[in-house]
């Protein structure tokens, strides 16, 4: 395995179609992914994660901008599978081919030794199922086979699109440890997900996109915004409640399910309502975890 | 060319071969082809022998063996076309273009490798089909004490040209598959064209001299010109013919043109 490689996205843009029916899947996206750590590539459904990764891998032609591995595009890599291993969502297998044969085909195409097939099947825990047709595989087994394909060339970069989808808790634990170990070996690892909670235990860095644009880039800790506390409160007489909150100097927003009060403490809000003689129907302190920060960043309604 | 592209092409051809041999498609098609060709070649020999010369087309002893043996390619050719088209369209259908292009991002090289591997496989189909037509045909001829002409070098030259035709037909199938990536559409077009449209076109084109000139460039006519004998040459004996090597070049041109067009349309498209 060669030394870690930095992935560089520079003003990457993709527009599908043309004219009025066109879709701006990715817009002017620039960021880098460093070796030796796991970077989570996050965004809601339709944010453009898969499109971005497919452009990085030379499968989709960018409308403009570039995506490279240390300055070299995927197409120009001398030994693509030995440099970059990738598993994309909706893993693509011929259902009538066995897992071992599937891996053998791509090992041959990349000029890799035949023994790699057995090695990677064992690495992902499929050694007993190698001679079964992939058509009979469960979703979790397909995910593992996708990961096995990614590992064929013992690459220094791993690009995985939603690798946790379809894995059982045991499988999730396994892949976390596995990716940890690969990152500790100095590899560059980019993992996409539409759920922060799915990857928050395994990633060091996060890149968040929505509507095809970069929203946040930083360490996992940078997402922690627990100091901004919110209270969710509601009353049968919503107008009286809002008047009381305004009088007490609170900033709030009124939603269908209740009123969200910013920078507040449940006890203080309760006292304000009590003093104003407003009967409450609900009152709770909103816990702002990482997932909430994530949702706040990508917008309440998500991308769709 | 430097060494790297040549080696990569070698790897790609190797992988394309493995793709074909690791699914059941090829031997299922081969099996149906062998049975079909044997039934037609053996059955027709028997029918012609029992009817005698009284009715039906007049066939001399010298015509019989080449006519019967050429069924291997003249009716068997649809199988290598289907093989080429199905193997190619299955890459789109099962989205295996993704791992294929990941393992080798130079897409042109993969298409060339596919054409090479399937042309060789088409040749294998040719060998099997000719073994079937010659085996069944000569067997029945022996039963009726007819001369099977198995020691005639002309017969073996015909068999060789038939194998070449089958190989080229398989590459035509690849061209078609990359031009029409929808598997269902490709199958319908192959069957409709080979079983229905082309026979009618060939018959109709023979009606005037001008259309006959054009008609000889139809793929089926070119294939018959290459092989040198078929039941068409009995029903329409006046059709102007290409030389055998010209027939081969016409078939090759179909494969190359279709592959080229397919490369610039479906093959280079975004894989999403
Ligand atoms: N081939 C295509 N043609 C047209 N539009 C497309 C195509 N592929 C993707 N899109 C559009 O591009 C946008 C981004 O899609 P993409 O698949 O990259 O999102 P994603 O972040 O991977 O979503 P998910 O979490 O659901 O996998 C979507 O609006 C999608 O509809
Ligand atoms: Mg996706």
Automatic annotation (TrEMBL), chain A:
InterPro entries xrefs: AAA+_ATPase (IPR003593), ABC_transporter-like_ATP-bd (IPR003439), ABC_transporter-like_CS (IPR017871), P-loop_NTPase (IPR027417)
Ranges where the ABC transporter domain occurs: 7-236
UniProt KW keywords: ATP-binding, Nucleotide-binding, Transport
Name of a matching Pfam family: ABC_tran
Keyword DNA-binding assigned: no
Superkingdom, taxonomy of origin: Bacteria
SUPFAM superfamilies in UniProt: P-loop containing nucleoside triphosphate hydrolases
MF GO annotations: ATP binding; ATP hydrolysis activity
Family affiliation: Belongs to the ABC transporter superfamily.
Protein name: ABC transporter ATP-binding protein
Organism: Subtercola vilae
